[in-house]
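Entry for NAP complex. Fields follow.
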Amino acid sequence: MAIPLSEKPDEQDIGHRHGHQVNGHADESVNGHGQVNGISNGTTSLINGNGLTGHLDDGPAIEIPIRETPMGTTRPFKVIFMGMGASGINFAYKLSRELENVELTIYEKNDEIGGTWFENKYPGCACDIPSVCYQYSWQRKPDWTHYYSGSKEIWEYFKQVSDSNQLGKYVKLKHRIVRAEWLDDEGKWKVTVVRNNGRDPDDTFDDYADLFIHGGGVLNNWKWPEIKGLSSFEGPRLHTANWDEKVDLHGKKVLVIGAGSSGVQVVPAIIDQVDRLFVVARSPTWITAGFAPAYAGPNGANFAYSEATKQRFRDDPTFYLWYCKAIESELSVRFKMIVLDTPENKEARAFSLQEMRRKLARKPELMDKLIPTDFGVGCRRPTPGNGFLEALTHDKTTVLTENLQEITPNGFIGPDGQHHEVDVVICATGFDTSFRPQFPIISNGRNLQDEYASDLVGYLGLSVPEVPNYFIFVGPYGPLGHGSLVPMVEAYTNYVVQVIKKMQVEDIKKIQVKRSVAQDFTRHADRYLKRTVWSGPCSSWFKAGSVSRKPVCWPGSRIHYLSMLQTPRYEDFDLEYLSGSRFNFLGNGFHAREYDGRDLTWYYSLLDGQDKQPESFPPPLY
Ligand SMILES: Cc1cc2nc3c(=O)[nH]c(=O)nc-3n(C[C@H](O)[C@H](O)[C@H](O)COP(=O)(O)OP(=O)(O)OC[C@H]3O[C@@H](n4cnc5c(N)ncnc54)[C@H](O)[C@@H]3O)c2cc1C
Ligand SMILES: NC(=O)c1ccc[n+]([C@@H]2O[C@H](COP(=O)([O-])OP(=O)(O)OC[C@H]3O[C@@H](n4cnc5c(N)ncnc54)[C@H](OP(=O)(O)O)[C@@H]3O)[C@@H](O)[C@H]2O)c1
């Protein structure tokens, strides 16, 4: 039976209920305080051996049988996780190590795991975060080939992590989630899945879970540009995120549309192959130095690790950790660059300006078009562009800084009305970054898809107000704008694992962020973000898919975010309990450790670090 949360979020405490039945107690409902339907009769509660049978201060008699299991018992719990990219892999690993009695199913639409690094195979695709910071803290690879790694090597790393930890058993490949609906009475998500692209009518089925986690990636829904005639092009038309490796660019006339991070990587990677290159770069953008340059090669360039260095990393994990920490520290302090008018912000701008002018010197007419004047470095995601500007100034390259008029069957009509023939069109035009779910997510009569048309209300980049038992990895107002996403994914996981443990042990049926809290958080974030370059007048995917919208980044540094996520703030949530009493999890008066062999005097500290009751104790001593 449905137990709605209070309609007055500001006033509500945990688990208020109005006139609804709680788990088999047919005619009464209780809130977490044992109040019944807000009726006050001024009586006092009594607790006898069989349960709550007396009267509470302001409620009539209620009877909630005591749960005859020890406190600390983990109830069976099912999680459905969407996507087996970096987020899904991390979640599966942690779940297998840190949770018990939890069934996990990860639905992955692709025929391989790896997400971003499986899908993006365009020439030059690489991490611009140093390799040693783009890996899990719990499984470091000592033998990265390069300081910045290519897409293939990163995918191989994730695949190896998954295989070596037997995480494949949780994953159903070629299974696309197409709908999710919260069933309030049951306290479950009903998730509709289509397998094998739905070739067979029986390929659509429903699965049910206590918790639904969206790990489908914000950069996973690639999009074609809106350009007249695009589909009329008769030659190969590629998108960077949907690359066809069979297309040979050697000796071809090629049009690249887009100068975001993908365009900046693909252009220098193909310049030596193509006969003629046209690049559409319609908006100014800061091309910066590589991230964490202090440890990079000369002038911030990529380099290959020597065998001796890799061996040292293998032999001396402490040294390797020290090295990783040095680079991660360099990345993390970069947030000062994002804050307006800081010395770091000014320095980054001055440096990038000087570098862009130097590199565009062969085609000075491009400076006015490509160098931003009204927004700072980092407004759009900084794009370390090794070789990009050099490729633009190459003799065989034509840069178009306005919109194309049209794509034709064999070429395109440029901004000046001239037709150019090309053999291949490459769209480096990015993704739908609106955060709008790609399928209906229904809860309490709302479809989340409808809420993304206007300004978003977020909560710590990981949840949505008043949507029960639902978390997003890499959601709005998360740390989108700087540094490696992998430590963030670990932080999301640790947070959600804590929530699951609590739900299991404390018999929580429903947990959802209060709207008033999310609004308060969003107002704070919006106010703070005005201090950052992200709010500048640039087009960027941090603005929830539209240039004119506000940025939806975390209002602070990475360290600030990681600290915030360490412990869930349960006061920000509404909770509902399976039994109707928030204290029924106290159970039969014993703790699970009194039955399961754990140390009964753990509070004295552990012998040999093991939480296990010693098999014997010393004999009496005199
Ligand atoms: C080209 C490129 C380069 C990048 N470089 C960096 C970088 O240098 N540093 C950095 O920190 N980040 C980088 N990123 C961001 C990168 O996306 C994240 O770092 C990280 O890989 C995200 O992992 P994820 O698991 O959250 O999402 P993803 O890797 O996007 O994985 C999501 C998974 O969910 C699956 N999925 C989606 N919808 C459904 C559905 N309906 N049903 C079932 N499955 C579904 C997808 O198939 C996919 O496998 C880059 C992104 C791109 C596109
Ligand atoms: N690690 C890396 O090096 C790396 C590499 C690739 C991607 N990424 C991640 O992925 C994100 C997305 O990068 P992305 O480059 O794929 O997408 P993006 O940053 O959104 O860039 C898309 C580009 O396409 C252009 N574009 C879109 N429609 C167009 C049209 N109709 N005509 C002309 N140009 C058009 C955009 O121009 P406007 O700006 O004018 O709209 C922009 O230059 C990055 O920010 C980053 O987070 C990282």
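NOTE: Residues 77-221+433-575 form a domain with the FAD/NAD(P)-binding domain fold (CATH 3.50.50.60).
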